[in-house]
Amino acid sequence: MPAEALSFDLALDLPGFALRAAAEIPLQGITVISGVSGSGKTTLLRALAGLEPKSCGWVRFGGEDWTGKPPQARQVGFVFQDARLFRHLSVERNLRYGAARRGTPEPVLQEVIEALDLVPLLARRTMALSGGEARRVALGRALACQPRILFLDEPMVGLDPARRAEVLPYITRAVDQFGLSVLYVSHSQFEMALLADRVYLIAEGRLGPLQLGPPRFSAPVIGAGDGMVRFEIDGHDFCLPGNGAPGEKWEIRPGHGCILSAEHPGRNSAAAVLPVICTGFDRERLLARIEVAGQVLEIEAAEPFPERQQAWLICPRLRARKRG
Amino acid sequence: MSDLVTPVWLSLQLAGVTTLILLVIAMPLAWWLARTENRFRPLIEALTALPLVLPPTVLGFYLLLLFSPDSALGGAFLRVTGDTLAFSFTGLVLASILYSMPFAVQPLQTAFHAVGQGAMEAAATLGASRFDAFRSVALPLARRGLLTAGVLTFAHTLGEFGVVLMVGGSIPGKTRVISIEIYSAVETLDYQTAHVLSGGLLVFSFVVLTVVYMLNHRGVRLAG
Lengths: 324, 224
Fold this sequence. Notes:
Chain A is of the alpha+beta class. Chain A contains 6 helices and 20 strands. Chain B is globular, with a radius of gyration of 20 Å.
């Protein structure tokens, strides 16, 4: 059990809605809070950020008591479902708004801007942004405050699969590059499978943990350099950030899910080129069938692929570590 | 033709001072009205909107009673300044503030309501205190409402007649504003003065309203 945790015992009674949630969430990786629509996921996130003044109970962040503190004293980076960019400010001034108030040094701000590829957007008006761009700016604005924890409230809602494939790698990059722990609210099983280190489920106004075991498989390193390691899995190349030597065996957990795209997702994202066996719809999700390491997997696709077409397999949370 | 500069200058002073003071008062009031869930809100809203429907003479009558040296307010003012509140410039300013209140509060309330809770919450999570968020987010987003409130208050105060006549009478250089001057001119058959002042007010009001509508239209286009 890590020493640092976000622990709370909160109750909220509103007309027609009651929520009781108590947990000790480790400040490490991505914690998904899931549940059906209207179950109180967003309300819990808001209460933890200090945005629900009517909630009772207590909140502790590490050794610090957050109970009764206003949102501006909690240093939570909050990315709202509807982005909530300030429409009277340009993208750059949106990014600088929180940075100025939290005293973020200029190099850190520039690092955020570069990590999220926001340079081409800086001079734009927020109303001229696409849905995916607006989420990226909102994420950047939250990161520019140097938050101690990041709250993401259904950041993929309302985005089509192609835009989701655009935003997802940025979220994981933000987590990895800035070493932040994340509370991620989502009712999508796909996002849960794709990102979660652990999952808590809200049902009938109560919060409880749900264990999720990631699948793993091992692969030999075939090349290394420039901070990247190359693997071969069943005749296909995988690249991952890291240091290793050829001949080593690494254990890879394919996150807990991957997404297929016809376009390369950008630098730093773990991606592999794989042939797609076929694509089809399962309810509203577009699924592609691929073969990795002798296993046939069904994976959510950003767009339909003709049979045997080459596509990028993007695993935002793909991790590898040396065996033994 | 009688002296035109004095009533015009007096009217501009009255409208300017009233607008400045009223904006300072109306901003927090409109902010509160736009966001509160207090059950007394309809009562306060009705009170601020009263001057829209009341005959100016009714408001003027009650203010005259309130300003009289026999009342607590009027008596205190007389003791402190040595002057009566009724038939003074200060009395006119107080009366104008009450009379023009809805013209400042309502556009601001609508504008603040449109800012919404979401932007304020976002500002708070980015480290802004409530006052900082009001200053840096709510006010800039509501700037067209602020402009409309200022312009309407100024123009409405410039054109008021009934309340001024009841509270201020017609003392040249002190309370005889443009509208009273027009009334006196017509009574004494000085139609030339009445023409110049009436025409001036008509053109001014038309230009002001056109500018307000143009700015609002431009804002809507930019926002869309």
